TrEMBL record:
GO terms for biological process: polysaccharide biosynthetic process. The keyword RNA-binding does not apply. It holds the Pfam family UDPG_MGDP_dh_C. PANTHER family: UDP-N-ACETYL-D-MANNOSAMINE DEHYDROGENASE (PTHR43491). GO terms for molecular function: NAD binding; oxidoreductase activity, acting on the CH-CH group of donors, NAD or NADP as acceptor; oxidoreductase activity, acting on the CH-OH group of donors, NAD or NADP as acceptor. Keywords: NAD, Oxidoreductase. Belongs to the UDP-glucose/GDP-mannose dehydrogenase family. The keyword Oxidoreductase applies. Residues 365-461 form the UDP-glucose/GDP-mannose dehydrogenase C-terminal domain. It comes from Terriglobus roseus. This is UDP-N-acetyl-D-glucosamine dehydrogenase.
């Protein structure tokens, strides 16, 4: 992450003199309304790049910041690295003034800076906020009074104040620039940096709900910050939801995903019981979903993936310890979900043994390494853990995924494998359906496979003695 030096920051701030300095909320809103406001987005991944396109589509001039030079070059050359974001989308944004850069000096020219960087867990399930801290340190020399700084990265309650505000305050003290925390009665004056938290609610692969229809929760350090952020986001989202503080907004995002984690853990546990009882859990859930009140359907699977659901519960569990509180319910749900790849591995081993095939040396083809259907996203994918579990049994494991011709290594995996063509299905002792991509023709796969273990209920309409559902 670029950090710059004093000379760089002074020159950048001098250059920012071309950006009109606003001193009132009315002036700030006017710049948003007229689309004169410059928007900077840090982190051009699954959250930041779609957000960039939304702002560009509404006429804002957006600058994208990222430390990955390959991403920056790709975007500036009019190409994309995220499926469903096409080159024509990038070209349309460029026509509205979009460009990408690794140079953080340009932060000084922005009216609003939105931080969309990763917030993963360490191997001990503790929050890793190094990306947030490094980013705020990088922009701190260039921020100025009248700017709005918003953290979108999912995190525990208190992060915005404890990290973003603290770093900006410490850096700003040297230049006489402070984070504004106005008294409740002050709703108009702007004489410092406005800071807010607004959690991303990105749902990769969702083709039903338009991004702009997802309400945007906003919590500022004071009323002007909240109103400024609502004005900005209100220009691209149909509805904004102001809350009383950044911590409230931070907790809101955690509640949303913990709710999902707990309910997924419930059906994952019930699935294991139902298998022993000879009951179809998917049929049970579908039947329960006919109740018009008091029930929301969640479905079991081989584990949970994506950045949010596997990570967010542990953020709150970690923070709760500061208050001497143990989140037993949340931790139990996390344990159930994390154990699912092992459960699936055991079902594959059992199915192979039932066919008289030893696990050691058995050829297993895993269908799908993305964490859910029809996305090009490997983050926290249970498929990666399943592959490693099967390899640990001595299986000869291959995979197929239309979105990933190759899988190298990441923070938690080092597979270094290439996708196997589906034409070779018949060569394998077992085919495991780990991700139910719509591109998979299940009837053909079942017909050609020797054994199919289905962890997604993808073969629910197919009757065959080859299928083992788990």
């Amino acid at each position: 992450m670029a950090t710059g030096n004093i000379e760089d920051s002074e020159q950048a701030l001098a250059n920012s003199g071309t950006v009109p300095s606003v001193t009132t909320l009315t002036e700030w809103k006017a710049r948003v309304q007229s689309r004169e406001a410059r928007v900077g987005i840090i982190g051009l991944g699954y959250v930041g790049l779609p957000l960039t396109l939304l702002f560009s589509s509404e006429g804002f001039r957006v600058t994208g910041f990222d430390v990955d030079e390959k991403k920056v070059d790709t975007l500036n050359n009019g190409a994309s690295y995220i499926w469903r974001i096409e080159p024509e989308h990038i070209a349309a944004a460029q026509a509205k003034g979009f460009r990408a850069t690794t140079d953080f000096k340009d932060i000084a020219e922005m009216d609003a800076v939105l931080i969309c960087v990763p917030t993963p867990l360490t191997e001990h399930h503790a929050p890793d906020l190094s990306y947030v801290e490094t980013t705020v340190h990088a922009i701190a020399p260039y921020v100025r009074a009248g700017q709005l700084i918003v953290l979108e990265s999912t995190t525990y309650p208190g992060t915005t104040e404890e990290i973003v505000v603290r770093i900006l305050t410490e850096a700003g003290a040297k230049r006489g620039v402070n984070v504004q925390i106005a008294p409740p009665e002050e709703t108009e004056q702007i004489d410092g940096i406005l800071v807010a938290f607004s959690p991303e609610r990105e749902d990769p692969g969702n083709m039903i709900t338009p991004r702009r229809e997802i309400p945007k929760v906003v919590g500022g350090m004071d009323k002007p910050a909240t109103e400024a952020a609502c004005a900005l986001y209100g220009s691209i989202f149909t509805k904004t939801v102001p809350v009383s503080s950044p911590a409230t907004a931070e907790m809101t995002k955690l509640l949303e995903n913990i709710y999902r984690s707990v309910n997924i853990a419930l059906v994952n546990e019930l699935k294991q019981l139902c298998m022993k009882m000879g009951v179809d859990i998917w049929e049970v859930v579908d039947a329960a979903a006919t109740k018009p009140f008091g029930f929301q359907a969640f479905y079991p699977g081989p584990g949970i993936g994506g950045h949010c659901i596997p990570v967010d519960p542990f953020y709150l569990t970690w923070k709760a310890k500061e208050y001497g509180f143990t989140t037993r319910f949340i931790q139990l749900a996390g344990e159930v979900n994390e154990d699912m790849p092992v459960f699936v591995m055991r079902q594959v081993a059992r199915a192979l043994n039932a066919q008289g095939v030893a696990t050691k040396g058995a050829k297993v083809l895993v269908l799908g390494v993305a964490y859910k259907a029809d996305v090009d996203d490997l983050r926290e994918s249970p498929s990666l853990a399943i592959i490693e579990q099967l390899q640990g049994l001595g299986c000869d494991v291959s995979y197929n995924d239309p979105f990933f011709p190759k899988v190298g290594h990441g923070r938690k995996y080092a597979l270094n494998m290439e996708s196997t063509p589906l034409e070779r299905v018949s060569e394998f002792d077992c085919v495991l359906i780990a991700t139910d991509h719509s591109a998979y023709e299940m009837e053909t796969i079942v017909a050609e496979a020797k054994l199919v273990v289905d962890s997604r209920n993808a073969t629910r309409h197919i009757q065959s003695p080859k299928i083992v559902r788990c």
